[in-house]
Each structure stands twice: as structure tokens, then as C-alpha cells.
Amino acid sequence: MRYLTAGESHGPQLTVIIEGLPSQLPFSKDKIDEQLARRQKGYGRGRRMQIEKDQVQILSGVRFGKTTGAPVALVIENKDWTHWKKIMNPDPNPEDAEKRRISRPRPGHADLNGAIKYNHRDMRDVLERSSARETAARVAAGAVARQILEMCGIEIAGHVLRIGEVEAERVLDLPLSEIRRRTEESPVRCLDAQAEQKMMNLIDQAKKEGDSLGGIVEVIVEGVPIGLGSHVQWDRKLDARIAQAVVSINAFKGVEFGIGFEAAQRKGSEVHDEIMWSKERGFYRATNRLGGFEGGMTTGEPIVVRGVMKPIPTLYKPLKSVDIDSKEPFEASIERSDSCAVPAACVVMENVVAWEIAQALLEKFPSDTVDELIDNVARYRERVLEF
Ligand code: EPS
């Protein structure tokens, strides 16, 4: 299973093509729209989100509510495009070519590197595609993957652990349904009410100062069978593939599993999870410090993965940069942005992780129909219990 996205931030639409979905998968537009709506929310989002109302159109591969096995094409319209038709015109149009031309790269964005690499004198040709608007398309693909996971008894939830200097108190052992319920009610998708208020105050302050904030997001996946991914080759290790997917989300700079970077400070006996067995559960771990992975394969314990997002680099507060035409220094100051997109990024991360797990599931259990997949997973789970 694979997907590609296309589309610019202010072009007419975002497009996703998904190939390799099993047939007969109940395909819910509402469930995709629900994920898209979740991504649009969050305290600290800017004015663009008041313009957009992201909804998916299904263009192929689905008939009478089920996948056919053919590629699925999905489209999300950019409502803002009506204001950008001239600027984003694909036809040769010298009259408008100079309008809104960008010669001033923003520090922290793809602008300068992309312009040099692709030889663009108008950096709009870079930033339109590098914009985090593209994450709406990735969320749509992940929302489809979630529908596969759901049918195989795999659940996912995410929450915000940190925004700037405010860290949430860890809430242990909450059922994922409860995490989903509580984060949906929180404007910053945080489980700790006190931290939530502090996070919101910090976002207000950053906004007032023309600054931006990053943070840490945690995603948990339960019900994953043992043995997704493989130790035998570097590019089949599922934790590594999840790491790539997470760091590829705009502004994400790092990823950790379980206790993560803290493992460096602990002794081996305080890191590794002891192996247990019972008739009801089969093999399991006494703890889950490694976050659900050993040897690039799932252990059957919950996957616990965290991603760190840098503060959005589009700032009202000017940073020094250099104009690519005049080579004169200037102070970059940009009009419209989100001051904090960590709550939205939490939804993006949940969905990109869902995609990687669904893909690994279909690699372990190649199936042309969803019923075959469900049977294969169920039979494997029984075999694992008897191992
Ligand atoms: C973004 C800049 C802003 C954000 C955008 C990402 O858009 P605009 O330039 O139109 O104000 O709102 O995020 C989205 C459009 C989105 O859907 O998340 C950027 O430069 O990355």
C-alpha cells in the first residue's frame, strides 16, 4: 500500500492517490472529514483556518460505500484559492508573474534551499508546496488507514505533552477511548487541565509578541499484533519507518519511542522490559519502556511514540535574512501564520503513524479483500497465543 500527494497551499486543491487498499473495505467519507476537522482546530491556529472547511471528495476506487481494490483518489479543496487564482495560474501569464513574487527567504523555511536547488527566482514556487497545508492530504490518507486498523482491533490516540516551556503531568494507564474523549474537549489536546491553561496563556503571550511555539506530541497505538516490521533489513524496521514518517511532518525535528532519549542515562537493567507468560495473554512484557518495539518489530505492547515540533518559522517578529535579488539584508516579517500548530500536529502525527502501521499490517498479511485480512490477523493472533 502506498500513497502520493500533490497540491499547493493556495492552489485549487490537494490530491491524494492511495494504491493497494484491499477491496470491500467499508469506506466512510465522514470518518475522513472528522479527522480533517480535528486537524483544523487547536488553540493558536491562524486566520487561514477560518477560511478553509476541509472536506474530502472521493473521485475513484470506492463504489456504494466500499473500496473496489482500484486506486482511491481523494481531493480536498482549498477555499482560499479563489483569492489566488491569478497568482497561482498554471498558464503562461507574464502580467501576473511579478505580483506577490517572493525574493525574501524566511529563516527556518524551505524557501532559500528550495530556490537555489530548483533555480527559482520567485520563492513562492517553493513555499506553496512546502507549506504545512499538505498535511491535510496526509491526514486523509491516514484516516483511510485508520479504517483498516479499526477492523483489525487496532486503536490509536494522541495527546500534547508539551508546548514551549509548559509540560503536562503524565497521566498513566488511561484507556485510549478516554484519551480521545478528553483531548477532544481540550483546545490544546492536553490531558492535564492545569498545564492546558498555562499552555493557552503561553500561546496568547507568544501571539502578542509576534512569536511562535513548538512542543511535544505523544501517540499511542494498542492492539498491534506481535511481529509487524522486520529485523532482517534496515528499511523493514517498523520503528525506523515510523520515525521517518514523523520527522517528515512539517516542522518536526525528532522522534523517540518509550523512554526514548532517557535510555542514555539508565543502566540496561532499567531499560529492557522483562518477558512474562500467562495462559490468557501468552507472552508479554512486565513494563513497556521500549515503547512497543524490539529489533524493529512490534512486541505486542502498546506503541508509544513522541515527536518534537519546532516553533513555526513564519514570525511576525522579524528575523534577519538577505534578499536574493539585491543581496541586501532585511528583517523578515510575515503577515499571516499560526502562532502554535502543535495541537493540529498531534492529529497529523496520529494519522501518519496509523498509515505506517496499516501498511506494515498489509505487508505481513497481504490480502486482496478486507475479510481475508481480518481472517489472517485473527488466525495469526490465535497462533501467537499458542506459541
Ligand atoms: C502555513 C501557513 C499558513 C497556515 C498553513 C501553513 O497558511 P497561509 O500562508 O495561507 O496563511 O495556515 O496551514 C494550512 C494552510 C493548513 O491547512 O494547515 C505554512 O507556511 O506552512
Automatic annotation (TrEMBL):
The gene is aroC. HAMAP family: Chorismate_synth. Pathway: Metabolic intermediate biosynthesis; chorismate biosynthesis; chorismate from D-erythrose 4-phosphate and phosphoenolpyruvate: step 7/7. This is Chorismate synthase. CDD domains: Chorismate_synthase (cd07304). It is an enzyme of class 4 (lyase). GO terms for biological process: amino acid biosynthetic process; aromatic amino acid family biosynthetic process; chorismate biosynthetic process. GO terms for molecular function: chorismate synthase activity; FMN binding. SUPFAM superfamilies: Chorismate synthase, AroC (SSF103263). Keywords: Amino-acid biosynthesis, Aromatic amino acid biosynthesis, FAD, Flavoprotein, FMN, Lyase, NADP. This reaction introduces a second double bond into the aromatic ring system. It holds the Pfam family Chorismate_synt. The keyword Protein biosynthesis does not apply. Belongs to the chorismate synthase family. FMN binds at residues 129-131, 250-251, 295, 310-314, 336. It comes from Lihuaxuella thermophila. GO terms for cellular component: cytosol.
